[in-house]
Amino acid sequence: MDNTFLAIVLLIGCFLLGLLIGWLIWGRKLGQVKESLAKAEKTLGDRDKEIISLKGQLSTLEAAAAAPDDLTLIEGIGPKIQDLLQSIGIKTFPQLAAADVSRISDMLRSAGLAMANPGTWPQQAQLAAEGAWEALEELQEELKGGRQA
User: Fold this and answer.
1) Which of 131, 57, 54 shows the shortest CA–CA distance to 94?
2) Is the pTM of this model over 0.70?
3) Which of 34, 101, 128, 135 has its CA 20 to 30 A from that of 17?
């Protein structure tokens, strides 16, 4: 009986030793896998940021490459002012609709065209961008030289 008991204890000891060795080996492997996963997630996050940045650049380039609108359809804008607007990157109705009036006023003053008043240009450009030509015509009938009458 002593040999049987000793064999069982030895068998249980070997089993436990095997579990311990396996736990150490797989624990280390698991740590390596977790580390690799963290690196991969960081790389993916960096790539996502890069993709978002590239999409923004693409949108900017597409907008810049878009055919310019005829900004002279806006009351108060003639060919010379249209050229000035295009020189600062305002080439389309949506761009003009989103433009800062004070920035345009400064540009006009610098060009010696301070008599032009861009106050209604964004509103007119928004209507043109939306294709609301009748509403634009009605608004322009109320204007005098691009200014509220």
Assistant:
1) 131
2) no
3) 34
